[in-house]
Write a structure and sequence with these properties.
This is Dehydrogenase. The protein has a single domain, classed as Rossmann fold, CATH 3.40.50.720. The chain is globular, with a radius of gyration of 18 Å. It has a seven-stranded parallel β-sheet with strand order 3-2-1-4-5-6-7, sandwiched between helices. It contains eight helices and seven strands. It is α/β, with parallel strands linked by helices and 279 residues long. Helix content is 39%, strand content 12%. The longest helix is centred in the middle third of the chain and has 25 residues.
Length: 279
């Protein structure tokens, strides 16, 4: 069912991982999806797999529509130009998925804060939290022109349990709090703002670390409880299609819980249980 027909969406950080999975599912539901990132065809950042052009090709192969736009969301000028383009082409923005994230440039381990490199701040806050704040700053005025919009912050959340790494925990909770603050400020505009958490995703980098791929992951015992990146995509699509989504505004959501609520499955037919951390 094309539940998002006529909607315009922007998914940042859509070269790979959660961003790609969400972009594919929003397009499958009928939305026109702008996919952004720094990795483009012929110029992939850090030689990582995937780029925004490949994401768009996959969207179109599945019958969806969209546009790939190179954008560094840490730069206000890049982001402002992107939003101006969306405004001129559509005059509206219904769905914003804030997924830009640069926090995994260094290994994320569980050493004490004072033994961790300070560069974690630059990667997680400048390239993650700040990038999402900038995108909100330029996108919200356009979104306010049409009631009933949705902003999603992809983050990681498990009932406010400590996530093990000081910088990672601080950054992910900052995204949750940003969503809550915006939910209060945008309540009168009818725009829902929701922090959305996946479980353990089989991203391209996770699969590579286990020396496997999406076609063979079931052969790796350690990956038995993982979910595809389309799972969080289906969660995002379900939220965007819910006419009563304002009831959830400001409240952290988990992909596994939303699967139970809305009745969707992962691409292999499973309802993957919510990922819970050990206390």
């Amino acid at each position: 069912m094309k539940t998002l027909e006529g909607k315009v969406a922007l998914v940042t950080g859509a070269s790979r991982g959660a961003g790609k999975g969400i972009a594919l599912e929003l397009a499958a539901a009928g939305a026109y999806v702008y996919v952004t990132g720094r990795s483009v065809k012929g110029n992939r950042i850090g030689n990582r797999p995937g780029d925004i052009d490949a994401t768009l090709e996959e969207i179109e192969k599945e019958g969806g529509r969209g546009a790939a736009v190179s954008c560094d969301h840490t730069r206000g000028g890049d982001t402002e130009q992107l939003i101006s383009r969306i405004s001129s082409e559509w005059g509206r923005l219904d769905i914003l998925v804030n997924n830009a994230w640069g926090g995994n440039e260094l290994p994320i381990d569980e050493r004490p804060f004072w033994e961790q490199p300070l560069e974690h701040w630059n990667h997680m806050f400048d390239s993650g939290v700040h990038a999402q704040l900038i995108t909100n700053y330029y996108a919200i005025p356009l979104m306010r022109k049409c009631p009933g919009g949705l902003i999603i912050h992809t983050t990681f959340w498990d009932r406010y349990n400590y996530l093990g790494n000081f910088y990672y925990d601080l950054a992910k909770d900052a995204l949750v709090r940003m969503a809550y603050g915006l939910s209060r400020e945008l309540r009168g505009d009818g725009i829902a703002v929701i922090p959305l958490s996946p479980g353990w995703m089989r991203t391209e980098l996770v699969l590579d670390s286990f020396h496997t791929d999406e076609a063979h992951w079931q052969e790796v015992e350690e990956l038995a409880s993982t979910e595809s990146t389309r799972y969080i995509g289906r969660a995002a699509s379900a939220l965007a299609s819910n006419p009563k989504v304002m009831e959830l505004s400001g409240v952290p959501q988990q992909a596994g819980r939303l699967a139970e609520r809305y009745g969707f499955t992962d691409i292999d037919g499973r309802v993957v249980p919510v990922f819970l951390m050990e206390k």
